[in-house]
Design goal:
Length: 376
């Protein structure tokens, strides 16, 4: 399936000459001095294409700093006049859209909490009807590709063709090194559904930690994302919001300087020959892996038949423990992490059990099929 989005290329609405494309600025506009001074330092690096700042901040708990509000739009205007940088703000209501447009904000974005709520997205979309302004849509807080797609469709249906997605990671119950789990596969699925839609990575909100921003930025570029949105503050240690993840403009320049740009299309014939040869090897191995797994499944079915004939249960925990133990040790010797081998085995084992169950319940299968039909 492909999405039917009507999109203009990124280069029609933002300076894409800079590599990589970077949008930067403070998490929140706090004071006129803080915003304008940060903007000047960022502009001086010569590495950024737009200035971001949160004016209305969606905070998890009440009583926290909820953004400076409309007055910040005046500061952004000044920052733009003095630096020439186009400006970007988050909008979450129709009123925000109206005020931001009136103040001449160049790019709007929909925040992660808003994307999770179709009512909010529709309100924003309705306010955008008849307006030609670029809009970036952050992924929803929860890892639900449909919500992200739905928000992009709503904005696109309102006539916004200068559209991009922002990948800022997903809330997860499990503790990890990241503030929001990247779950790269969700962003890759979006790219597969809409190859023409630019995706900008937001390593600041993924990591929540300035020390990891370079690492995630590199990964995003290696996955062929079109740009980065990185929070920068003139003095992160005193930032009113997201202090741990903001970097000074100088640190931002350093992060960008250390990024390696790899091209998705290889122009050099020699390199591309080598790549083709390696890909050929991978293809052959993949075919072999699939063939062997299919053989393994056939044996599993034979075992199922044997267990059925002899009245033995399908799952025997002792045997499964033994398989896990032996294979992960073998895997480790071949430089495969135990975690990886375990995951792979679990997938194969689950399918084996499913096939064995099918064999054992062959008589009951007709009944089950009928049941499925009534539940469909
Ligand atoms: C932000 O960009 O400062 C922000 C609030 O981000 P998100 O919507 O991704 O949480
Ligand atoms: Mn922030």
């Amino acid at each position: 399936m492909k999405l039917n989005l009507n999109i203009q290329p990124l280069s029609t609405w933002i300076k894409t000459g800079k590599e990589p494309l970077v949008i930067s600025g403070p998490c929140s506009a706090e004071t006129e001095e803080q915003l304008v001074a940060t903007a000047h330092l960022l502009a001086q690096t010569g590495k950024i294409s737009a200035l971001r700042a949160g004016i209305w901040k969606p905070r998890t708990r009440p009583g926290e700093f909820e953004g400076i509000g409309s007055i910040g739009l005046e500061w952004l205007k000044r920052a733009k006049e003095e630096t020439g940088l186009p400006t970007a703000v988050e909008v979450a209501t129709a009123k925000h859209v109206e005020e931001a447009l009136k103040a001449g904000v160049d790019i709007l974005w929909v925040g992660a909490r808003s994307t999770a709520n179709p009512f909010t997205v529709q309100e924003i979309a309705d306010a955008l009807k008849g307006v030609d302004v670029p809009v970036m849509v952050k992924n929803p807080v929860n890892p639900d590709l449909s919500l992200w797609v739905g928000a992009l469709e709503r904005i696109n249906n309102a006539g916004i063709t200068k559209l991009a997605a922002i990948h800022r990671g997903f809330s997860s119950y499990e503790k990890s090194a990241f503030r929001n789990e990247p779950m790269w596969d969700v962003a890759i699925s979006l790219k597969t559904l809409a190859p023409e839609l630019p995706i900008i990575n937001d390593p600041s909100h993924i990591t929540g930690n300035r020390d990891l921003i370079g690492y995630i930025s590199q990964k995003a570029l290696d996955l062929d994302m079109q740009g980065l949105m990185i929070e920068s503050h003139i003095d992160p240690s005193v930032a009113w919001t997201d202090a741990k993840q903001q970097v000074t403009p100088a640190a931002l320049a350093d992060i960008i300087d250390h990024l390696a740009l790899r091209k998705p299309e290889v122009k050099n014939a020699e390199v591309s020959d080598k790549l083709a040869e390696l890909r050929n090897q991978i293809d052959k191995i993949d075919d072999l892996v699939i063939q062997k797994i299919a053989e393994r499944m056939q044996i599993a079915e034979k075992i199922g038949q044997y267990k059925k004939d002899n009245n033995i249960t399908i799952l025997q925990v002792g045997r499964w423990d033994e398989i896990l133990q032996k294979r992960t040790t073998y895997g480790k010797a071949l430089k495969l992490s135990a975690e990886f081998t375990e995951k792979l085995l679990e997938l194969v084992h689950n399918e084996s059990i499913r096939r064995q169950t099918e064999v054992m319940n062959a008589d009951a299968a007709q009944g089950q099929a009928a049941e499925k039909l009534t539940h469909a």
